[in-house]
Amino acid sequence: MSAAIDELKGLGSAEDFFRTLDVPYDAQVLRVARLHILRRMGEIIAALADDAPDADARDACRQALSAAYEEFTVKAPIDTRLFKVLRDRDPSRPERRGAFVPLSDLVG
Question: Residue 102: is it exposed, middle or buried by C-beta count within 10 angstroms (0-12/13-18/19+)?
């Protein structure tokens, strides 16, 4: 799998990933969720066996990119909270519920 990953490491943009792996995409979806798509792709690939032959590895990378892209055609990036900065600001987390301080508490 390392040869396929090494090839992807040399790419410079999300569009390059889609072109190299021959995965069709909508430019608007990619414009909004490019980092999230690539992050999710990385998570999917990291869960795969590392000893796959290169031909199979390239296909696995294609499938991972396609699955990640499809996820963000139906979900907003903020809903997945893939990045720490978004998880830390998640208002649904119990430890974040007490973080709100009303203005009336500050003005006395």
Answer: exposed
